[in-house]
Amino acid sequence: MRTRHAGAAVLAALTALTLAACGGDPDEIGADSTTTNPEQTEGGGGGGDSITIGIKFDQPGLGYQDGSEYTGFDVDVATYVAEKLGYSADQIEWVEAPSAQRETMLQTGQADMIFATYSITDERKETVAFGGPYFVAGQDLLVAEDNTDITGPEALEGKNLCSVTGSTSAQRIKDEYAAGVQLLERPGYAECVTALTAGQVDAVTTDDIILAGLAAQPANQGKVKVVGAPFSTERYGVGLPQDNDICEDVNAAIEEMIEDGSWEEAVTANTEGTGYTPNSSENPPTVDACA
Description:
Elements: H1 6-19, E1 51-55, E2 58-59, E3 63-66, E4 69-71, H2 73-84, E5 92-96, H3 102-107, E6 113-114, H4 122-125, E7 129-137, E8 139-144, E9 160-164, H5 169-176, E10 182-186, H6 189-197, E11 203-207, H7 208-215, E12 224-226, E13 234-240, H8 247-259, H9 262-271
Parallel strand pairs: 1-5, 1-6, 9-10, 9-11
Antiparallel strand pairs: 2-3, 3-4, 7-13, 8-11, 8-12
């Protein structure tokens, strides 16, 4: 893991001034940066070290930026794990991790860890490593609160379904469950929910916890609900560089979060008022062995 050593930087700067000598940029993260020992920095005593964590900035209930505040289930899990690694909340530098850039961010050192609805797949394991999973999601449907007709993807025959441009989730329903469904694309899921509450579509589809996060927003509460019949499995992992040495510590932190009740509290806090409950046959998850 890459870290910045603020104390060392200050000392180097003072030395440079005293000796009137030229020195390197104290903020530069070089190849000789040392890895933080979690045992030495327990409780945030990292001596000025920081950790860079990638999250989504536009997924309410999971990873969401509002000014200088970051909220959501991914943020809560990331904060818990970071603290167990020895970093206090104010030592975390949050960076946006768009889906298409996650592997590059880990490979180039732009992020030390990524918590961004990052599904564990064999293909991704060829370039990055994973801790976790810390949650198992499934594709589901969001419908109007008073809707009783749509109980699963098969019930969408002849209905209007919204998903985000470029997503494969809506097309999957058309291909595998309801050939007669009419697909509507919008730039983001917030726009899909707006279409749903306006009666322009009958349902919205993506991962269930993403839908629950949208339903939990004050503007949507009492208007929409998650059907609660997931029909896929998406195992959210912690993205790590392949040459990391903290996977075991990350897994231990996730297990502790589950055992002490903090995991369940985080799920509830970020989906409250939606009627959503995680798939109990998959959650809480069991972490994979680190490769």
